[in-house]
C-alpha cells in the first residue's frame, strides 16, 4: 500500500506562531511523525506541502494509479476550494481529511469543508497525531 500525505498553505509554518491553536510541534516534527508511522506500518508514504491550490490539484491528479490512499489537510483551502474537492473526486482514491485544530469550535468561515465532502473520514483537534491516526485508518481498511 502507498499513501500520499498532502498539506496546504502555511502548514510549513507550524510551531512558529499560534501555538495555542496549532500546538508547539513544528513542520519538521510532523515530517518525522509521518516517517515514523511509515516505518511502524511498513507502508510507503510520500508527503507534499504547497501554498498553491493548483499545485495541490496537480499532485492529486498525479496520484491516480500510483497511490492507494490520501491523507489531506488542505489548510485554508479546506474552506474555499471546490477545485481540490473535484480533484479528489476525479481520482477516486480513498481519502481522510485531517485538521490539527478543532475547526468545529473556531470561526464560522471554518465550518465548511469542501474536501470533507469527498473524504470518508475527518480527524480534527488531535494535533499532528491526527495524521498518524489517518494513516493507520487507511492502512487497516485498505491493506498493508
Ligand atoms: O487545523 C488545521 O489543520 C487547519 O487546516 C489549519 C489551517 C487553517 O486555515 C484551517 O482552518 C484549519 C492553517 C494552517 C497553518 O497556519 C498557521 C498559522 C499561523 C502559524 C502557523 C501556521
Structural notes for this entry:
With 144 residues, this protein is of the alpha/beta class. It has a single domain, classed as Dehydroquinase, class II (Rossmann fold), CATH 3.40.50. It is built from five helices and five strands. It is globular. It binds ligand CA2. Residues 10-11, 13-14, 16-18, 22, 73, 75-76, 78, 99-101, 103, 110 line the site of ligand CA2.
Defining traits:
alpha/beta; 5 helices; 18% strand; binds ligand CA2
Write a compact overview of the structure shown:
37% of the residues lie in helices and 18% in strands. The chain has 144 residues and is an alpha/beta fold. The protein has one domain (2-142): Rossmann fold (3-Layer(aba) Sandwich).
Radius of gyration: 14 Å
Assign the CATH class.
Answer: Alpha Beta
Average pLDDT number: 97
Largest sheet: 5 strands, parallel
**Helical fraction:** 25-40%
CATH-level-4 superfamily name: Dehydroquinase, class II
**CATH fold topology:** Rossmann fold
* Order of neighbouring strands in the sheet with most strands: 2-1-3-4-5
Bound molecules: ligand CA2
Query: How many domains make up the 3D coordinates?
Result: 1
**Based on CA inertia axes, which overall geometry fits?**
globular
The amount of beta strand, in percent, is 15-25%
Compute the number of helices: 5
Which consecutive residue ranges, at least 5 long each, have pLDDT under 50?
none
CATH architecture: 3-Layer(aba) Sandwich
